Amino acid sequence: xxxxxxxxxxxxxxxxxxxxxxxxxxxxxxxVGEGHPNTVIAMSRxxxxxxxxxxxxxxxxxxxRAVQLSKRVFGEGHPHTIRSMDIFANTLYHxxxxxxxSLRAYIPGGTAAPGGIAWGGAxxxxxxxxxxxxxxxxx
Length: 139
Description:
Layout: H1 2-10, H2 14-32, H3 37-52, H4 56-73, H5 79-94
Helix pairs in contact: 1-2, 2-3, 3-4, 3-5, 4-5
């Protein structure tokens, strides 16, 4: 199912990939537990799918949980943890929310601009379509 979900994602069929991704997350959680790397990755993938569909609030909640688990499972400086934090920050940005203070330590410069948004007033460009050659969201 993992290959099918990934294929659908890269074809831009996010709505079709979402239930498969949810099943994978539930499967991993029930078989190996919440703290297993596969479960954390499945959770992050679901957050990416939700983000890609503009379901920012749900993506925010799932991604925040993935960030917390990634810190515990992979460590704070691990690329997966950093990527999860990037996705989380972008879900906040697209909702007009400011970056949480707990994430500022991971943002270049480590502070928020006077307007409240990190990175000097703007989130750096993040491609959001699979057709963009710079876009590679999956772990």
